[in-house]
C-alpha cells in the first residue's frame, strides 16, 4: 500500500508514530494509500527545522523571496494537469474543477509576488523636534496552517503564499483525506528555490492539530474547517498565546427577486449548489425566491436544470460533479435528506440510491431538491455540505434579508435582481461577510480578502489580501532622535509629548 509521508526540512520523512489514516479514491470507494499521522514529537522535529531555516529566510530581501514565488508559479503551471488529476483522485471533484482549485490558490501566490511593495512601512519625518518615526512589518517566525479536505490546493496556498513571502517559516497540516497535493506543492516550492525547512508538511489529525496549538515556537495558526472545530481551535490557540484566524462552515443563501433574469439565475444557482458535489464553503445550498410567482417559476426551471445534471467519475469530462469525499460523509448527507422529509419539507428530487455502472462502490449521490423548507427546520439551520438544494420561500425583500442575517453562519450570500436600489440595500444590510450581486460564488479576488461573519469566521483578520500580510507580520514602530538633530531636551518626568 502506498504511503503518504511528511515533508520536513526539504525531504520526505517517514512517520514513526505508528498511527495512520486511510486515503480513499472516492470514485471507486477503495483505499488507495495510507497517510502517516504525526505525533507531538514528529511535529516538534518539523518545528525545529522551521526555526533553523526561518532567520535566514527572513534575511533574504523581499524581492528575492518574491522570485522564488514567481518560479513556483511557473512550475505549478507546468505541472497543472498532473496536480489536478492527483487532487481529483483523492477528493473526487472533477478534474476541471481541480484546476480551478489550484488556479485560485495560485492567484494568491501571484498576489504574494508583490511582497516588496506590500511590506513597505510608514514613515513620519519631524514627528517632534528632530524626531522621526517609522513603522515596519516583521515576520512572526514559525507559523502554521490547518486546512480542510475540500480545497487541498487552494487553501494551503492562501496561507503559505503570504506567510512565506513575509519571511516566516510554515508548517502545513493538511486534511488527512487528501494529503498528496500539499506535499507536491511543498516539493515544487523547494524546486523553485525555497530553502529547506521554510515550508514543511506534517500529516496528521486532531492530535497533531492540538500539538500545533500547544507548541511554544509556533506563533500563529490559520485554520479553515468546520465551525465547532474552528471555535475550539480559536479558544485553545488563544489560551496558548497564539494569533489565530479560524474560518468555519457556511450555509449560503441565493435570494431571487421578482425582477431577476430567471434563466441566468437558475444557471448560476445550479452550478453553485451542485459544483464539487456541494462540498464548498461558498456553495449556494439555499435559494430564497421572493413572492409566490417567483417561487413557482423558479422551481419549474430548477427542476428541469437539475434533472439534466450528469454525475460521473472525476475524469469524465462531461460530468458536472463527481463523488463526495467519503462513505461517512455520504451517509451523513443521506441522513440529512431523510431528516428533511421527516421534518416536513417536500423532497422534489431525491438523489439517494444513484449507482454508477462500473463504480458501484464509489461515493456518488445524485442531486436532491427540497421545497417548502422553513427556518425552524434542523436541515436548514445546519450545514449539509452535499448536493442538496433547499428552497425557502419569502414574501418580501425584508424577509429575504432576515433569513441569512439571522442564520448562525454568515460566509457568503448572493442576490439576483435587476434593481440597483434593492441590491444596494441588500448588500448594505445583510449580516454576511461576502456578498454577490448577480454573482453566485462571491469568493473575493486575491488582492481583496476572504472571510465570513458569525460562526463562519472566528478571526478579526481575513485570509489573503492585505489582511493576510497583516496576519503573518507584526508591526514594529521606531521613534528616533539623533544628537544634533534638534533642540536638546531637559530631564523630564512627564510623559513625552510632541507639543
Ligand atoms: P474539519 O473541521 O473536519 O477538518 C478541518 C481540519 O481540522 C483538518 O485538517 C482536520 O484534520 C482537522 N481536525 C479535525 N478534527 C479536529 C479537532 N477535533 N480538533 C482540531 N483539528 C481537527 O473540516 P473538513 O470536513 O475537512 O472541511 C469541511 C468544512 O470546512 C465545512 O464545514 C466547510 O464549510 C468548511 N470550510 C470553510 C471554509 C471557509 O473559508 N470558511 C473554506 C473551506 C471549507
UniProtKB/TrEMBL annotation:
GO biological process, any: L-valine catabolic process
Enzyme class per UniProt? oxidoreductase
* Name under which the protein is recorded: methylmalonate-semialdehyde dehydrogenase (CoA acylating)
Q: Which Gene3D superfamilies match?
A: Aldehyde Dehydrogenase, Chain A, domain 1, Aldehyde Dehydrogenase, Chain A, domain 2
Which keywords does UniProt give here?
Answer: NAD, Oxidoreductase
Q: Which InterPro entries match?
A: Ald_DH/histidinol_DH, Ald_DH_C, Ald_DH_N, Aldehyde_DH_dom, MeMal-semiAld_DH
Matching SUPFAM superfamilies, A to Z? ALDH-like (SSF53720)
Amino acid at each position: 500500500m502506498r504511503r503518504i509521508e511528511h515533508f520536513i526540512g526539504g525531504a520526505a520523512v517517514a512517520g514513526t508514530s505508528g498511527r495512520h489514516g486511510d486515503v480513499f479514491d472516492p470514485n471507486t470507494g477503495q483505499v488507495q494509500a495510507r497517510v502517516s499521522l504525526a505525533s507531538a514529537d514528529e511535529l516538534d522535529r518539523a518545528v525545529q527545522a522551521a526555526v533553523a531555516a526561518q532567520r535566514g529566510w527572513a534575511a533574504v530581501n523581499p524581492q528575492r523571496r518574491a522570485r522564488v514565488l514567481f518560479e513556483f508559479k511557473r512550475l505549478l503551471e507546468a505541472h497543472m494537469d498532473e496536480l489536478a488529476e492527483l487532487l481529483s483522485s483523492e477528493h473526487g471533484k472533477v478534474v476541471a474543477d481541480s484546476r480551478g482549485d489550484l488556479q485560485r490558490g495560485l492567484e494568491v501566490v501571484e498576489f504574494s509576488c508583490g511582497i516588496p511593495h506590500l511590506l513597505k512601512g510608514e514613515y513620519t519625518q519631524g514627528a517632534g523636534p528632530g524626531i522621526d518615526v517609522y513603522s515596519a512589518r516583521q515576520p512572526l517566525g514559525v507559523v502554521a496552517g490547518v486546512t480542510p479536505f475540500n480545497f487541498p490546493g487552494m487553501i494551503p496556498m492562501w496561507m503559505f503564499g503570504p506567510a512565506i513571502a513575509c519571511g516566516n517559516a510554515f508548517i502545513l497540516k493538511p486534511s488527512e483525506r487528501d494529503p498528496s497535493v500539499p506535499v507536491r506543492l511543498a516539493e515544487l516550492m523547494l524546486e523553485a528555490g525555497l530553502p529547506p525547512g521554510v515550508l514543511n508538511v506534517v500529516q496528521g489529525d486532531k492530535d497533531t492539530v492540538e500539538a500545533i496549538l500547544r507548541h511554544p515556537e509556533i506563533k500563529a495558526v490559520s485554520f479553515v474547517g468546520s465551525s465547532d472545530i474552528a471555535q475550539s481551535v480559536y479558544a485553545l490557540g488563544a489560551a496558548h498565546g497564539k494569533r489565530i484566524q479560524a474560518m468555519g462552515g457556511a450555509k449560503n443563501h441565493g435570494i431571487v427577486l421578482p425582477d431577476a433574469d430567471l434563466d441566468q439565475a437558475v444557471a448560476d444557482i445550479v452550478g453553485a449548489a451542485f459544483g464539487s458535489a456541494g462540498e464548498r464553503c461558498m456553495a449556494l445550498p439555499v435559494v430564497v425566491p421572493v413572492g409566490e410567482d417567483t417561487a413557482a417559476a423558479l422551481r419549474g426551471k430548477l427542476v428541469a436544470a437539475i434533472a439534466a445534471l450528469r454525475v460521473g467519475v472525476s475524469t469524465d469530462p462531461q460530468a458536472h460533479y463527481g463523488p463526495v469525499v467519503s462513505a461517512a460523509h455520504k451517509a451523513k448527507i443521506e441522513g440529512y435528506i431523510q431528516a428533511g422529509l421527516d421534518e416536513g419539507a417536500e423532497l422534489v428530487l431525491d438523489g439517494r440510491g444513484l449507482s454508477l455502472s462500473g463504480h458501484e462502490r464509489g461515493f456518488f449521490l445524485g442531486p436532491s431538491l427540497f421545497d417548502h423548507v422553513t427556518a425552524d427546520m434542523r436541515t436548514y439551520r445546519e450545514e449539509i455540505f452535499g448536493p442538496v438544494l433547499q428552497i425557502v420561500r419569502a414574501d418580501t425583500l425584508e424577509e429575504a434579508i432576515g433569513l441569512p442575517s439571522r442564520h448562525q453562519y454568515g460566509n457568503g450570500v448572493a442576490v439576483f435582481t435587476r434593481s440597483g436600489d434593492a441590491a444596494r440595500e441588500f448588500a448594505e444590510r445583510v449580516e454576511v461577510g461576502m456578498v454577490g450581486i448577480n454573482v453566485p460564488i462571491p469568493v473575493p479576488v486575491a488582492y481583496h480578502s476572504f472571510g465570513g461573519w458569525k460562526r463562519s469566521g472566528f478571526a478579526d483578520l481575513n485570509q489573503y489580501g492585505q489582511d493576510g500580510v497583516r496576519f503573518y507580520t507584526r508591526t514594529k514602530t521606531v521613534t528616533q532622535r539623533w544628537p544634533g538633530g534638534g533642540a536638546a531636551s531637559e530631564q523630564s518626568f512627564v510623559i513625552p509629548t510632541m507639543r
